Amino acid sequence: MHKSGFVNIIGNPNVGKSTLMNALVGEKLSIITSKAQTTRHRIMGIVSGDDFQIVFSDTPGILKPSYKLQESMMKFVTGAVGDADVILYVTDTVEQSDRSSEIVGRIRESGIPTIVVVNKIDLSNPEALDALVDEWHDRLPAAEIIPVSAKERFNVEGLFRRILELLPEGPAFYPKDTLTDKSLRFFASEIIREKILKFYDKEIPYSCQIEIDSYKEEPAIDRIAATIYVMRDSQKGILIGHKGEKLKRAGQAAREDMEEFLGKKVFLQLHVKVSDDWRNDERQLKRFGYDPE
Q1: Tens digit of pLDDT for each residue in 11-28?
Q2: H or E segment at 249?
Q3: Predicted model pTM
Q4: Model pLDDT for residues 33-74, shown as the tens digit of each residue
Q5: How many CA atoms lie within 13 A of 14 on its CB side?
Q6: Which of 45, 108, 170, 270 registers the highest number of CB atoms within 10 A of its CB?
Q7: Are 83 and 35 contacting, i.e. CB atoms less than 8 angstroms apart?
Q8: Burial 56-88 (b: 16+ CB within 10 A, else e)
């Protein structure tokens, strides 16, 4: 008997969806920072065994769109409700948000097997956790509720086993050695964006888009050239910093992460350009891959 299926991970920002995804897959596929809107695309991580294949899909955090980029991000989320074999709805012990009510309603009506994953239980106590479990039983009566700590890897294995039990029988969708549907170019751009989220404040990270201009694989080194697009000249100056020091620091951190991810040396070249209000430009968004239709 071979089990195979799609497991879509849905939830609000900052509940640890990406940390959970990476814990389940065992690879750093979804970028992780403490800032909201970290995941912009739908990122697949594939786990294959002798008698199973699980295709995990990390979606952007649920939000109320303020511009066309966010509208596109939410299409990834709503699409993930309908095409799953199992839904993981991720919440945590401190979340206070009602923006997910529409998505929760869609999940409730979908009839798809759902697990509510209560993350970050290391930050809670038994009484508060019991109250939270009762609350989610009321909101999604048909769902199972599994508490975990993705960061501490507590009960991640138990969650994985339960997902496996819920999957339908079927052949694998991808070759056994496939880890993700994304290219190395995609992960290079995500690593750069993660460093911008880490090293810059306010609106800068949310105004940036990364495009890989060239990616040349050589036996001993990968040579990568990338452009960071911002929306205004003032943002370009902040990103580069005095004598280029800020951009150099972010680039060095990105290069080190790429080398760890790839297991080889990386030469990384970064440029910064202005693209006026790219977040509302449909042509630009399509070019950057935000086209879930």
Answers
A1: 887 888 888 988 998 876
A2: helix 245-262
A3: 0.72
A4: 444 455 656 778 889 999 999 999 887 766 676 667 667 666
A5: 9
A6: 45
A7: no
A8: bbbbbbbbeeeebbbebbbbbbebbbeebbbbb
